[in-house]
Design brief:
It is elongated and about 45 Å long. It has one domain. By secondary structure, it is of the alpha+beta class. A hairpin with a 2-residue loop joins strand 2 and strand 3. It has a four-stranded antiparallel sheet with strand order 3-2-1-4. The chain is 29% helix and 26% strand.
């Protein structure tokens, strides 16, 4: 089973992902903002599951703690995006800010 080894906040700006000194072209067109990247380490279970799920995939059994960390990072990503976009936040998507008021959209 793959294990979650790191959660990264990845900035996307002007069609590129900015990760440290690396500038990676974004295949999908999207507005500037931050995204959450999950980094996994493969384990022996991935080799054991290979016959079922294929050689280029892995199985992940998330813990409640991992899911909680991911949720917190997604919230941070939303706030970083809102700051980067000077208060606008995302134009679309399933994660609205819990702190936004109707007046923020008027």
């Amino acid at each position: 089973m793959a294990t979650l080894s790191e959660i990264l906040q990845i900035k996307r700006e002007n069609g590129f992902f900015l990760v440290g000194d690396h500038k990676i072209p974004s295949v999908r067109k999207a507005s500037n903002g931050y995204g959450v990247a999950l980094v996994f380490e493969k384990s022996q279970l991935d080799k054991d599951f290979e016959a079922v799920i294929g050689p280029d995939r892995f199985a992940w059994f998330p813990t409640a703690e991992s899911l909680s960390l991911i949720s917190k990072e997604l919230d941070l990503s939303d706030h970083l995006t809102r700051d980067l976009r000077k208060g606008e936040g995302w134009n679309s998507g399933p994660r609205p800010f819990e702190t936004l008021k109707v007046a923020d959209f008027i």
